[in-house]
């Protein structure tokens, strides 16, 4: 183990090198992720910091129990504990709410969960549905901004719409087995791919389509807004316009969503840049692989989500709200070198208002009266 001063110098050197790389690429996200991974490195390198991290997680979430793993990657155990303490309970809060609304007939029992970001949500929903005895179908079509041809300033290049997208949409509808409605679950924020799917599925005679974000903005259904408004309003922009949710508070929570999408739960693969048809005529993703360490992080953290389902099967909206209220404390910890969140939120899409306007004008999203 390196002496403390050498660890500090090494981390500062890494940050400086990453800063130079980011400066060249002009991507703020790269800098934020570099800082996050430097924090991970410090937890595994500095004596006593891992134990301090566990105590901080227990303080944030009294239901948290430290996770011990046998792994050759020290970062895996750190992130397993971060997920167990912070993200799993909130993901299960979202999942139990979805399952409750399906059970009560408020939502259809077909769930669209587009990977990568929705992977842990799907894991949680499947686990909670089993616990609650709710029958539902989860479909995970590989539809993202790349294959849908949506311009994105968070990416350095534009891929364009995949020539296989329409066939994938056809096959997804067929896999719904005659269902007349579906819901889409996603971490957040914009609803860009949701609009693509809503338009395509309704053109294929699906009657109802309700995209539900963990954290949404604009004309999107948002679990976080519902929690903060005590169930009064699910549509993000309505909740903010009516004053049932403070915009300043919502903005501070964006970093939670960004971290949820970037800490590694989703990274079974790096990306899907295109689609292709296999020899059986099935549309498959063209996968860009990740390292063994990244794959193990994704595998282990999703196992943590599945294993903690029973612990949080009865988590209340009040408990989730208390956790959301303490997110600024997590950011303070992050700024001190603990990998609880990114140190700040990722810059938003530069065209988000155009997307929001398109959603409103399309009138393709369905907004059911949901239970919290």
Order of helices and strands: HHHHEHEHHEHEEHHHEEHHHH
Radius of gyration: 20 Å
| Major sheet details | 5 strands, parallel
Overall pLDDT score: 90
Side-by-side strand order of the widest sheet:
2-1-3-4-5
Name the poorly predicted regions. Answer: 1-26
Q: What separation lies between the terminal Cα atoms?
A: 48 Å
Inertia-based shape: globular
Number of helices: 15
Query: What percentage of the residues does DSSP assign to strands (E)?
Result: 5-15%
Summarize the entry for a quick read.
The chain is α/β, with parallel strands linked by helices and 372 residues long. The protein has helices at residues 4-25, 28-45, 49-60, 74-103, 119-132, 145-148, 165-175, 192-203, 223-228, 236-241, 247-262, 292-307, 317-325, 327-335, 352-362; strands at residues 110-112, 137-139, 181-189, 208-216, 221-222, 271-277, 283-288. The protein has one domain.
Describe this structure in words.
With 372 residues, the protein is an alpha/beta fold. It has one domain (75-328, 346-362). The protein is built from 15 helices and seven strands. It has a five-stranded parallel β-sheet, with helices on both faces. It has a two-stranded antiparallel ribbon with strand order 6-7. Helix 1 (4-25) packs antiparallel against helix 2 (28-45) and helix 4 packs across helix 12. The longest helix has 30 residues, at 74-103. It is globular.
């Amino acid at each position: 183990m390196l002496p403390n001063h050498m660890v500090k110098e090494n981390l500062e050197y890494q940050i400086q090198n990453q800063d130079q790389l980011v400066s060249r690429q002009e991507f703020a996200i790269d800098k934020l992720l570099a800082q996050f991974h430097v924090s991970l490195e410090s937890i595994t390198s500095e004596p006593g910091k891992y134990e301090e991290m566990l105590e901080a997680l227990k303080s944030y979430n009294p239901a948290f129990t430290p996770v011990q793993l046998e792994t050759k990657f020290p970062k895996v155990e750190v992130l397993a504990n971060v997920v167990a303490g912070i993200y799993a309970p909130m993901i299960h809060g979202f999942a139990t709410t979805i399952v409750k609304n399906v059970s009560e007939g408020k939502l259809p029992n077909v769930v669209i969960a587009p990977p990568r970001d929705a992977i842990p949500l799907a894991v949680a929903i499947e686990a909670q549905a089993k616990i609650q005895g709710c029958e539902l179908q989860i479909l995970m079509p590989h539809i993202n901004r790349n294959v849908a041809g949506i311009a994105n300033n968070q990416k350095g290049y534009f891929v364009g719409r995949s020539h296989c997208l329409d066939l994938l949409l056809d096959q997804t509808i067929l896999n719904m087995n005659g269902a007349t409605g579906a819901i889409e679950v996603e971490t957040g924020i914009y609803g860009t791919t949701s609009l693509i799917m809503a338009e395509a599925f309704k053109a294929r005679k699906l009657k109802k389509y309700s995209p539900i974000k963990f954290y949404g903005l604009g004309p999107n259904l948002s679990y976080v807004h519902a929690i903060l408004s005590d169930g009064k309003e699910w549509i993000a922009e309505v909740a903010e316009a009516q004053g049932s949710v403070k915009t300043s508070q919502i903005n501070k929570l964006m970093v939670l969503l960004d971290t949820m999408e970037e800490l590694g739960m989703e990274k079974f693969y790096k990306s899907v840049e295109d689609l292709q048809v296999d020899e059986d005529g099935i549309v498959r993703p063209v996968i860009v692989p990740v390292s063994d360490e990244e794959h193990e992080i994704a595998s282990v953290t999703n196992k943590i989500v599945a294993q903690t389902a029973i612990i949080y099967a009865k988590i209340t909206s009040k408990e989730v709200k208390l956790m959301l209220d303490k997110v600024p404390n997590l950011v303070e910890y992050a700024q001190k070198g603990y990998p609880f969140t990114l140190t700040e939120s990722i810059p938003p899409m530069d065209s988000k208002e155009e997307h929001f306007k398109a959603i409103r004008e399309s009138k393709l999203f369905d907004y059911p009266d949901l239970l919290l």
